[in-house]
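Changelog entry: the GH3 family protein record was regenerated in this release. Current contents:
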Amino acid sequence: MTIQSGVAGLNEEQQDIICWFDGVAESAASAQTETLRRIIEMNHGTEYLSKWLGSDTEIQQAEGEELERLYTRRVPLANHADLEPYIQRIADGDDSPLLTQEPITTLSLSSGTTDGRPKYVPFTRYSSQSTLQIFKLAAAHRSRVFPLRAGGRILELIYSSKQFKTKGGVTAGTATTHYYASEEFRAKQKCTESFACSPLEVILEGDYKQSTYCHLLLGLYFCDQVDFVTSTFAYSMVHVFTAFEGLWEEICHDIRHGSLSNSRVTSPRIRRAVLEHLSPNPSLALKIESKCRELQGLDWCCTIPELWPNAKYIYSIMTGSMQPYLKKLRHYAGELPLVCADYGSTESWIGVNLDPYAPPQSVTFTVIPTLAYFEFIPLVNSQHKRPTDDVIDLDYQEGEPLPLSQVKLGQQYELVLTTYTGLYRYRLGDVVEVASFYKGAPQLTFVCRRKLILTINIDKNTEKDLQLAVERSSQLLAQCQAELVDFTSHADTSKHPGHYVIYWEIKAKDGDEIRDRVLQECCREMDASFADYGYVVSRRTHSIGPLELRLVKDGTFGNILEHYISNGATMSQFKTPRCTNNPVLLRILDHNTVKHFWSTAYG
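Regenerated structure tokens:
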């Protein structure tokens, strides 16, 4: 779809934000220079910047490209480990200007599912303001394609975790939790003219099971008013509708009687807030019950459009590690459009999806040049690979970091951020590709996380490689009417030779037994699908052992979710770790393993 510049049919605020973005996209290079100037001006004299810039006023007086050259020459590239000592001092109560001139009173926790442990990242008022800004911009572009009713509702499947205080009295929690508690989140509904089905008490409770039940109950109570269904990640949406398959009868009982299940919802605060919205509605309960019985016979296919007939689309993050859940999400969504949400991280927002029609597999994100100062490290894959292989691996040669204005179409880069919140030339670890340009702003596709997740010898396999191997092999499950629920992996080097262990949780339809022969074929196909040259050579020479497929009990990945949430993660931010060395997770997985299969792919 070609992106149109028109703003007809939008309200004045939506027209204004689209016109504003068109202006900054047109002059993206100068907007980037101005963003860097403002960040340095705001935070010059902090301990971290003084270490590299000193008290010299030359950089403050520099303009344009000279400012960028001075900054990138003097301040080194950094990763989280370089900034962690400063962030830890903030957590311990040091309120001197370490990273920002403005005191940092809030710290975000990353999900911890990428590298096994959560990290503290500075969170300021700017973090909430930039979130509101990108939400308003994205909503305006979606409204051009999917006009919404003023005063309509959103089935918003979002969750907070509990905030806590660090040793130094700094508030800590996930970035989504901080945002949902902010003034900006309260302002969002007015700006977008759409209102969540659930009151704030449901979102902020911190118990995802109670919140899920209330989201579904109120979502169905207001089912004819719902314009679209959204969650932070596709995983959480799939999780909610899978849970709905076992909750619908209780929900219908509550709608019929205007009540709220005492066993499902125990929080007095939630109960008061939800019961204010409910009154007995027997006819609606009967209608939903009838629909659910039909859907049950169809294995819940098209649940969302059947129960929310006026919903126009599904909105969530669907790229990267969320791709394995798209098949199940499509099952629940039927023909409803799957609209990919915007590109960001705990550290910063990056780009907006300007084309709601774009399928998740080909969506691009247009960089917003005022959110942060962006640099791009050119990456050239130097690993030998066969011409026919569709391989992404991480044996990259790096070029010198480039400003946004110098990126090239078709080139892959690692993103580097300088933010208002105190991150300077911070290597994000995301690999992106420049797919196109919108005016002067690059449009990026997300390729993968740069960090290797599976390696034993000279092999180098990324999350994308694992996803491709699992996707190809799991197609064989159709032979026995089964589907893959979730998966993770582990590089087992406890014995020689080391080997890959892949854990699968599978759902068999109608209670059918999954034949061992099919799982053995899946195991062999998965091993053969890892096309990384180092892996293939190592398998052929037996320096890496046969891949092992371990089948785990139903509910095992739910136990992993419970583990992360009990350690401070939130449902809105949870992503199944695609590779783990975490001993607690490995104990959960191994304790629940019911069958083992070994690959015969290499004899």
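The first strand starts at residue 106 and ends at 109.
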